[in-house]
Design a protein that fits this description.
five-stranded mixed sheet; 6 helices; Collagenase (Catalytic Domain); 214 residues; 13% strand; alpha/beta; 38% helix
Length: 214
């Protein structure tokens, strides 16, 4: 059984001035730590990912945490797996990939994304300016971005670049490898559409989206 950790942050406003209480653009993330990432690293990973999404005007809540000022109906639920090398090999992923995200239709109960722990460690060992938690955090945000922005969502700048170089890792170390303003708007628009769908189901008496991956 996968062990899960949960951390969240009580914020009134994020760095772009969005109020946590003024919208329902919330994403719930259940973390499956198959790679046995140390808890301290995991806490910093989650904080890094949360900060990136907060700058795009999107709140992120982690498993077993209450998002203050919000009700339980969330725009999206995400299962994030942190995978060790043996599990990554079974996925037959490219050596250059740091993670993987499946498509996530709006009616999907739980969206799934993977990040590769050993790849992040390799980047640290080869001299990336960012530390392990920061690299894992931007990998998580990138793959979660694919879930919400769509499969063909790479961009020439920002966190959704298909390939990262030294300047990108330096930006990550400074908290500046983030979603572009356009991507932030797209994230918010997509989450609003998902929230409308979930509210419609709730009004019709259907249970809210839930469930966990096996």
């Amino acid at each position: 059984m996968a062990r899960t950790f949960a951390r969240t942050e009580d914020r009134d406003h994020n760095q772009n001035g969005y109020s946590a209480a003024e919208s329902d653009l919330a994403v719930s993330v259940a973390v499956y730590n198959y790679a046995a990432v140390p808890e301290a690293t995991l806490v910093h990973l989650e904080a890094e990912t949360q900060s990136i999404f907060a700058k795009a005007g999107v709140e992120v809540g982690w498993r077993n945490c209450v998002i203050l000022g919000k009700h339980s109906l969330l725009a999206a639920r995400i299962a994030l797996r942190i995978l060790p090398s043996p599990m990554v090999k079974r996925l037959e992923a490219s050596e250059k990939e740091g993670g993987f995200a499946t498509t996530c239709p709006r009616d999907e109960l739980v969206c799934h994304a993977d990040i590769f722990y050993d790849r992040a460690q390799d980047l640290v060992r080869t001299g990336a300016d960012a530390d392990l938690s920061q690299i894992l955090g931007v990998l998580a945000a990138h793959e979660m971005g694919h879930l919400l922005l769509g499969a063909d969502s790479h961009s020439p700048v920002g966190i959704m670049r298909s390939k990262w170089g030294p300047t990108d890792f330096q930006a990550a170390a400074n908290g500046q490898l983030i979603f572009t303003a356009q991507q932030a708007g797209q994230l918010q628009a997509e989450l609003r559409k998902r929230m409308v769908l979930r509210r419609g189901r709730a009004d019709a008496g259907e249970p809210p989206p839930g469930g966990e991956p096996r």
